[in-house]
Predict the 3D structure of the following.
Amino acid sequence: QVQLVETGGGSVQAGGSLKLSCAGSGTTYSVCEMGWYRQAPGKERELVSSIKRDDGTTKYTDSVKDRFAISQDKDDYRLYIYLEMNSLKTEDTAVYYCAARKCGAVAFGDWGQGTQVTVSS
């Protein structure tokens, strides 16, 4: 099992920036892809961005392209991903979750506890 812990959420005014971090521990050798999801009140959880562990291929949902940047790092024991969020909009307000997809799995199956991002006008 992979344990994921997010940090870096908070409140910011529209146009501002925040950086989210996620540390993954446990059976990280089994992880092929990591990502950031978000869920706004009354809305379904959506994939914001993802990154493949082996070659660093990234994906973004259209609404955050050119504003958000995902990156990754690792040491001997943990995986780390980051989400640099710039030019934040009020519609980016949500709980952001770090997620991991194991190799061979079709979906993300390990989740962090979530971190709140609030963007005010």
Observations:
- The chain has a mean pLDDT of 96.
